[in-house]
Amino acid sequence: MAVVKDDWRFGLRYFVVSAASALAAAGAIAATYFLWPPATLPVVLVVLVGGFIWFMFWQRRRLGSYHCPKCRRHIPEPTIKHPQPEDPIHYYCPACDIEWDTRLRHPDVD
Ligand SMILES: [Zn+2]
To answer: Model's pTM, two decimal places?
Structure first.
């Protein structure tokens, strides 16, 4: 039976990077809208939707690049293969027999 241990650092880092990039994206969109008047609402919407799709893709990639905090082994995917919204995001390291709790939860959108 695997031991469940807390890896809040991954969760915190994940959250901080996500929040910072969301702020940067919002800032970039606002700047485009105000500094470049030809950028009308449809252009902003296209940038927004494109940015969102890229963001979701990027989030997926980040979730696939977890490393065990103890042995640094790469763990390509969370333990729950077909998660429901609000399911916790855990990673299992077979070498250490530890299940890492990132304190992250799967978002409502998929
Ligand atoms: Zn490990």
So the answer is: 0.75
